[in-house]
Specification:
With 296 residues, the chain is an alpha+beta fold. The chain folds into 2 domains: 2-128, no CATH class; 140-285, no CATH class. A 4-stranded mixed beta sheet has the order 1-4-2-3. Helix 6 (130-136) packs across helix 7 and helix 10 (203-215) runs antiparallel to helix 11 (219-231). The protein is 53% helix and 7% strand. The N and C termini lie far apart (63 Å). It is elongated and about 75 Å long.
Amino acid sequence: MKLVKSRNINPSEPLEAQIGLLDYLIKNAPETSRIVEFSPELAEYILTNLNHKNRPRKSMKIIQYSRDMSDNKWLLTGETIAFGTDGLLKDGQNRLAACVRANKSFVTHVMFGIDPAAFSVMDTGANRSHNDILAIMGVPNYGKVGSSIKLYMAWKAGKTNTGLIKITNEELREYYVNQVDEQAIQRAVKFSESVWGTTGYPISTLGALYYWAFTQGEEKKLIEFYEKLRDGYGKAKSPQKVLMKHVNEMRNDRYRKLTSHDYSVMLSRAWYNYKHNKSSIKADVIVHIDDKMPAI
């Protein structure tokens, strides 16, 4: 076993041998980084089989890296490829994709034995975003889910938009894992997409309100409200009619740009009126910059 542990992955060996040694290193993680030369074949194997939960690839980075590899300009730096204790790639997919694109081996430091929970603070120099975190977690529709959940969290804090609160990657990950109903948030996104298609109302705002209604046991009523909003049903002073009339007027006003604050306040007021069987009045769609988050 010591002999195997001291060996380096040799890109000239058969792919099966390269995979076997990589698998050994993953399962018997060295305490320090190892310098590894990845062949294009091994890189492709990793991307295909060990990359199930990683953030979206950045095509421009891949092109840049592949050019450097092709032109023999790739340098060995302190930047690492990382594998987790769960056997999956945690960092480095763009470099591996560049290796495949260039069809040329490259040398890099590799870290093994990374705690999967650590991905939220890895590679901060590349500006790992909230959406990246949800993508790594394998969340479907991660972008729309992320924006809806963050706005929902802002509303719970009494704020009208996400710019008024600070959420770290780890806080978002923990909140999603421990408190979010995954099926409900996917329903929220799917239904919000259909409403956005006819109204242009932001999916994040629609998704946040849908999920809020779900947590309050009002999902069925909210769907009824959204269907009328989407399809244009209702009397002239119905909440959904008054809301969309004002929104469309504001969109045609080149001197006034609707903000997340506007959308949050107006939709919340319209929903409150709808579920209480109240007509909306002009005051319900007039939003001031210092307005607080309404009752929902």
